[in-house]
Amino acid sequence: MRLMKGTDLALRIVMRLAVVGERESAPTTREVADAVSVPYSHAAKVVTRLQRLGVVEARRGRSGGLALTAAGRAASLGRLVRELEGVGDVVGCEDDPPCPLRTACRLRAALRSAQDAFYAALDPLTIEDLVAEPAGPVLLGLPLRSRSG
């Protein structure tokens, strides 16, 4: 199973926001996009999605920027990935046209079991867990350009 690019990007953005210090100004979407090496347009779409999920807060204006919400900090990684990936089977047995093996196939159940185990492994982890040593210092090393330069 491979995460969609949007989910991967969302997790990287959330992790970078989780290590922003209290004395730092809140980074803009462009600054975070540059820090995690993705195009601004992709980051903007992901930030909008994270706002709708209540994970990120975006403030406009001169002293605006992005911040991780308290709910975002404490969010279960499994829940967040489920929300970002969407609910569904790993394989498309019911797609158009439906798979002719779907009534007798055991693959779908085996893949569903594997998917459930994947999410169960992520459920106890939070964003805070992801930015603990050794990841935190590396994330802090991803530079956020200052607004003046």
Q: Can you walk me through this structure?
A:
With 149 residues, the protein is mostly helical. The protein is elongated and about 60 Å long. Helix 1 (5-18) packs across helix 3, helix 2 (29-35) crosses helix 3 and helix 5 (77-85) packs across helix 6 (107-122). The termini are far apart. The protein contains 8 helices and 2 strands, in the order H-H-H-E-E-H-H-H-H-H. It has one domain (5-141): Orthogonal Bundle (Arc Repressor Mutant, subunit A), CATH 1.10.10.10. The protein has helices spanning 5-18, 29-35, 40-52, 70-74, 77-85, 107-122, 127-130, 135-140; strands spanning 56-59, 65-68. It is 50% helix and 5% strand. The protein has a two-stranded antiparallel sheet. Its cofactor is [2Fe-2S] cluster. InterPro entries: Tscrpt_reg_Rrf2, WH-like_DNA-bd_sf, WH_DNA-bd_sf. One of its GO terms (molecular function) is DNA-binding transcription factor activity.
Keywords:
149 residues, mainly alpha, Arc Repressor Mutant, subunit A, 8 helices, 2 strands, elongated, WH_DNA-bd_sf, WH-like_DNA-bd_sf, DNA binding, Rrf2 family protein, putative transcriptional regulator, Tscrpt_reg_Rrf2
The beta-strand count equals 2
Q: Beta-strand percentage? A: 5-15%
Specify the CATH homologous superfamily: Winged helix-like DNA-binding domain superfamily/Winged helix DNA-binding domain
Order of helices and strands: HHHEEHHHHH
Second-tier CATH architecture: Orthogonal Bundle
**CATH domain class name:** Mainly Alpha
Globally, the shape reads elongated
Largest sheet strand order: 1-2
**Which structural category do the helix and sheet elements fall into?**
mainly alpha
Number of helices: 8
Which percent range fits the helix content? 40-55%
Mean pLDDT across every amino acid position: 86
Task: Assign the CATH topology.
Answer: Arc Repressor Mutant, subunit A
Report how far the terminal alpha carbons are from each other: 41 Å
Low-confidence stretches: none
Q: Total domains, how many?
A: 1
Largest sheet: 2 strands, antiparallel
Report Rg: 18 Å
